């Protein structure tokens, strides 16, 4: 959807319109992104998704399952695999012993860093942004992430 009408200045978009645009861009590029990531590392994309989330901050296995939209048994399998690969640790949560806290290891951090540092991992659409615009987008996404986590 264009943000401008013929002969008119820029049209303001609602938060919902921006969300739909962002969501469509991400979903439309998902297959390409998974392929690019799997060319850099040799773990299933579902594992990388979980690893990337705990790279931001440790979280309980339950929270990780909720954020990824998977059930507890699927998350258990994902975390078991990541533990077996030495990419995360899983320990009893200090605040609630019934929960397990998942934390990235140094090896897991290196895997995430390898993927995020590789310019070939990002979808080609990012070539449309210069360095300043990419920085602005990163700042805006950080604001949204902070709003979700507050």
UniProtKB/TrEMBL annotation:
Protein name listed in UniProt: Putative MarR family transcriptional regulator
One example of a Gene Ontology biological process annotation: response to stress
GO molecular function, one term: DNA binding
Species: Gordonia namibiensis NBRC 108229
UniProt keyword annotations, A-Z: DNA-binding, Transcription, Transcription regulation
SMART domains from the UniProt entry: HTH_MARR
Pfam families linked to this entry: MarR_2
InterPro entries attached to this UniProt entry: ArsR-like_HTH, HTH_MarR-typ, MarR/SlyA-like, Tscrpt_reg_MarR-type_CS, WH-like_DNA-bd_sf, WH_DNA-bd_sf
């Amino acid at each position: 959807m264009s943000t401008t009408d013929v002969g008119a200045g820029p049209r303001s978009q609602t938060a919902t319109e921006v969300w739909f645009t962002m969501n469509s861009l991400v979903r439309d590029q998902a297959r390409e992104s998974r392929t690019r990531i799997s060319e850099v590392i040799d773990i299933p994309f579902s594992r990388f998704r979980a690893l990337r989330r705990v790279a931001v901050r440790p979280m309980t296995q339950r929270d990780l399952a909720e954020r990824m939209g998977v059930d507890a048994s699927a998350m258990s399998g994902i975390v078991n695999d990541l533990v077996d690969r030495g990419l995360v640790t899983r320990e009893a949560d200090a605040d609630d012993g019934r929960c397990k806290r998942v934390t990235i290891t140094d090896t897991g951090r290196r895997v995430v860093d390898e993927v995020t540092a590789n310019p070939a991992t990002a979808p080609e659409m990012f070539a449309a942004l210069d360095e300043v615009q990419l920085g602005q987008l990163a700042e805006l996404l950080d604001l949204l992430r902070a709003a979700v986590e507050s």
